[in-house]
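User: quick one, sequence for these tokens?
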């Protein structure tokens, strides 16, 4: 893999990871169109560590606030008494579904589910569900109004991201909208909820890949370049997306997902890829 190839993959990862459009779908599609070999689940998971660092840096104040809330809740023996403690423990519990299902379906995620037919179908189906959420949601609730149950429910929505093409941010934002959250609130909580899952998957795959030599010595530098690129571009996208959702709906992303899914089905039908 060349340096330019790694930079392009990092940019695609950094930009699309935070948008509700599926980074996996874009990486797979563009790799096929440009004749690149599928970088594989281990490379993708390690590259996501760049997105993880972007979230840790951007949401550092939120994370410190939630951590203090959790510690105070434990000290008072009332872990769900305040909004911050509820969110903190909710994020922990909300991460369990994707963790359990990720282990249970690990082989399918890394192989069968990376089929472009599945990716195309997932792009379109989640777009339709997101459109339904946009049309029925109240868009009124703030982060402080979220209950512990809300966080757990969105955690189950996050598990849909195990299917390439669904999008982690897309599925969790959709779940948040169905619960009546404001768009920017749903997106902000989506990113906070994604931190533990992204860290666990990225670190596990990184350890496994380097231990087993899955990436190879020649892939160490490209992986590092792609990861740093994903981090830098990701930080910029977070700020832009949160600002965008304050005054706009997710219609742009819905249209993009459907168009991309149909385009991919067309490419597959005409055997272009």
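Assistant:
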């Amino acid at each position: 893999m060349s340096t330019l190839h790694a930079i392009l993959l990092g940019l695609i990862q950094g930009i699309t990871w935070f948008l509700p459009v599926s980074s996996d779908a874009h990486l797979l599609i563009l790799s096929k169109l440009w004749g690149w070999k599928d970088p594989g689940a281990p490379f993708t998971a390690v590259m996501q560590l760049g997105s993880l660092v972007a979230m840790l840096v951007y949401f550092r104040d939120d994370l410190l606030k939630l951590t203090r809330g959790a510690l105070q809740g434990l000290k008072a023996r009332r872990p769900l008494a305040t909004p911050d403690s509820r969110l903190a423990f909710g994020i922990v519990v909300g991460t369990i579904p994707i963790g359990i299902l990720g282990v249970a379906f690990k082989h399918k995620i890394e192989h069968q589910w990376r089929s472009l037919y599945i990716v195309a179908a997932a792009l379109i189906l989640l777009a339709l569900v997101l459109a339904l959420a946009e049309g029925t949601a109240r868009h009124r609730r703030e982060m402080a109004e979220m209950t512990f149950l809300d966080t757990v429910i969105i955690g189950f929505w996050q598990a849909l991201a195990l299917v390439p093409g669904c999008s982690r941010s897309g599925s969790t934002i959709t779940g948040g909208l169905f619960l009546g959250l404001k768009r920017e609130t749903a997106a902000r909580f989506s990113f906070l909820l994604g931190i533990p899952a992204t860290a666990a998957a990225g670190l596990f795959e990184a350890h496994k890949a380097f231990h087993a030599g899955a990436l190879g010595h020649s892939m160490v530098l490209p992986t590092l370049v792609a990861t740093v690129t994903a981090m830098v571009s990701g930080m910029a996208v977070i700020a832009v997306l949160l600002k965008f959702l304050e005054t706009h709906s997710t219609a742009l992303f819905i249209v993009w997902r459907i168009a991309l899914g149909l385009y991919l089905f067309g490419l597959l039908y005409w055997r272009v890829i």
